[in-house]
């Protein structure tokens, strides 16, 4: 019974810490084109969040994220070797919510976005609101 009480107190402290800090929303555009409608939509959405929420935009054009080829999943050969991959993961992991906008290419989302999302792990997206 004591363990349950300790767990409940610890969870309550963690929840209180979350309440005390500002929420952070990250915007991710699946387009790297200048003047992209997706980038404009992300900017508009983040500006509408107000001053009580921290926001950040991920511009995939500024990240040097290598293409995944399937073999790297098995060998973990790229796991910690790319600073931009780790930077991308950290921004997502440290956010509370993620807004994604992508152009439609052949009835699907962009390859740039697909590749970037492939680098994320379950832990990077854990407990995230995704819209």
Report on this structure.
There is one protein chain. The chain is an alpha/beta fold. The chain has a single domain (22-130), classed as 3-Layer(aba) Sandwich (Rossmann fold), CATH 3.40.50. Helix content is 44%, strand content 15%. The chain is built from six helices and four strands. It has helices spanning 2-20, 37-47, 71-75, 83-93, 111-118, 122-125; strands spanning 23-29, 53-58, 97-101, 129-130. Strands 2-1-3-4 form a four-stranded parallel beta sheet, with helices on both faces. The mean pLDDT is 83.
Could you give me the name of the CATH homologous superfamily? Flavodoxin domain
- Count of beta strands: 4
Number of domains: 1
- Give the N-terminus to C-terminus distance in angstroms: 40 Å
Give a quick set of tags describing it:
single chain, 131 residues, alpha/beta, Rossmann fold, 6 helices, globular
Helices and strands in order, then pairings?
Layout: H1 2-20, E1 23-29, H2 37-47, E2 53-58, H3 71-75, H4 83-93, E3 97-101, H5 111-118, H6 122-125, E4 129-130
Parallel strand pairs: 1-2, 1-3, 3-4
Summarize the structure.
Helix content is 44%, strand content 15%. The protein has 131 residues and is of the alpha/beta class.
């Amino acid at each position: 019974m004591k363990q349950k009480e300790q767990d409940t107190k610890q969870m309550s402290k963690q929840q209180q810490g979350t309440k005390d800090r500002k929420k952070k929303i990250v915007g991710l555009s699946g387009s790297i084109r200048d003047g992209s409608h997706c980038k404009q939509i992300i900017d508009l959405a983040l500006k509408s969040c107000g001053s009580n929420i921290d926001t950040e935009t991920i511009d995939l054009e500024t990240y040097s994220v290598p293409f995944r080829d399937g073999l790297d999943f098995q060998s973990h050969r790229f796991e910690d070797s790319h600073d931009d991959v780790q930077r991308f993961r950290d921004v997502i992991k440290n956010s509370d919510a993620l807004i994604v906008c992508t152009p439609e290419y052949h009835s699907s989302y962009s390859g740039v976005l697909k590749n970037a999302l492939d680098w994320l792990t379950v832990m990077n997206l854990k407990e995230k609101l995704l819209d």
